[in-house]
Design a protein that fits this description.
This protein is an alpha+beta fold. The protein is about 50% helix and about 10% strand. The chain has a 5-stranded antiparallel β-sheet. The longest helix has 23 residues.
Length: about 325
Amino acid sequence: MLKHLLCSLLSLGCHPSAQAVAHPPYTQYQEVQALIAQSSESGLYDPQRLQALFAQAQHLDSVLAAMKHPAESLTWATYGPLFLGDDRVAAGLAFWHAHAATLARAQSSYGVPAAVIVAILGIETRYGQRTGNYRVLDALSTLAFDEPQRARYFRQELLHFLQLCQAQHLDPLSVYGSYAGAMGYPQFMPSAWQDSAVDFDGDGHIDLIHDADDAIGSIAHYFQQHGWQAGPVADRAILTGQDYDAHLDTSLQTSSTVGALRQRGLRPQTAVADTTPASVLRLQGAQGMEFWLAYENFYVITRYNHSPLYAMAVWQLSEKLQAAMDADTATH
């Protein structure tokens, strides 16, 4: 659920153990010993167990390299086609049919359209087919202790991961995911798993790694928690004046209204009330700049991955999936 998509696509076929280089064991790090002491004091793990775990954790240069080249640094013209091809739509339609009852229940329970849930799964892991080949302990240790820019965040995720493994009876040395430490069908980070994952099939166990039903319900629950409401997501803007780029928004939150933006020279292609909160989004497309009105649900999608490119890919894939399902339903 971080900015890891392109690098994940490029690296999933490579087992990270082959990429490990000679490196001091993490048990020699002062920060690791502090983490072990903290975890031991809280009763999370026996200190000897943690010493043994971190003695086996590997530093991975490939993780650090991947963090420097996120797919979201691309232009929309390059990024969009990575996720919007006919093959991904066809696979998504098959997944939707296979899990139709669960998706309908998730939509009913949490108010999140089935097409959006399927689109998330399609972009994150190709509907569970590509969940990552990096050992999560290695990835999070590398980012927590050898990547200073976001070390605090990943150190917290490492702690959440250890807590999660304890609660879910997972072996920390046997859990694999993305280079950023995201796991399972939905590529939840450990904190998101703890905060948002649900036992959607009612078997008494939350399993996002092998259980598509739990993944579907957990994605829907995540979006509900972050404010998803019935309503529009994004709309291509029609330019009607020359002041249209005066209110470009980079915060990802809605900062204006449709009516105010209409006065600035942008109007939506579909009928939307002037009071609807909206922001202007500019994307570099294949035929020049594209201007979009992004609504509050668009911002909700960016809570999953903090990128307007990601949110736009999710939205457009969901539209393609919904159209494919409607066409398929009409012919049967």
